[in-house]
Amino acid sequence: MPSPKSRFRLAFTLVELMVVLVILALLSGVVTVSVQTYLLRSKQSVAKIEISKMMQAIDVFYATMNRYPTNAEGLAILATKSDEFPDALLKSLSNDPWGNPYEYRSPGVVDDFEILCFGNDRREGGTGKDKDITSMELSRARKPAP
């Protein structure tokens, strides 16, 4: 027959439960920070891929029309069917991963055109998670240095 003292030891003490809760809270905090970093990187990667596709479509537009789209035409002309492009160059024109439209400028700062994604802060400029993603950055990565 169990003694009276051992009968009460069948449950956890309040201190033991608090220690477990603190450990779980710390672990969930670490996991949340890690996941946010991966989500940010994936959004930046998606923006780079979409800008790259738009750059290819603009190259095809230039090869056919012998000009770049004007600022008034913008990127919308790439998703518009025409006599020259019966299927359109892009199936659709999507927003960036943060839900904002990509910005098109012609002429660009360095190149004949520029496509911009303003990143997490939705403003021009920024570093880290607020870093802008531009076609100029991608075209430099593709071209070998002279």
The CATH architecture of the domain at 54-146 would be 2-Layer Sandwich
Beginning-to-end CA distance, first to last residue: 89 Å
Q: Summarize model confidence as the mean pLDDT.
A: 82
Query: Which series of helices and strands comes N to C?
Result: HHEEEH
CATH first level of the domain at 54-146: Alpha Beta
Tell me the CATH superfamily of the domain at 54-146.
Glycoprotein, Type 4 Pilin
Strand percentage lies at 5-15%
Computed structural class:
mainly alpha
**Radius of gyration, Cα only, in angstroms?**
27 Å
The biggest beta sheet, please?
3 strands, antiparallel
Tally of individual helices: 3
Q: Could you characterize the architecture of this molecule?
A:
By secondary structure, this protein is mainly α. It has a domain at 54-146: 2-Layer Sandwich (Glycoprotein, Type 4 Pilin). Helices cover 45% and strands 6% of the residues. The protein is built from three helices and three strands; from the N terminus they run ααβββα. Strand 1 and strand 2 form a beta hairpin. The radius of gyration is 27 Å and the shape is elongated.
How would you briefly describe this protein structure?
The protein is mainly α and 146 residues long. It has three helices and three strands; from the N terminus they run H-H-E-E-E-H.
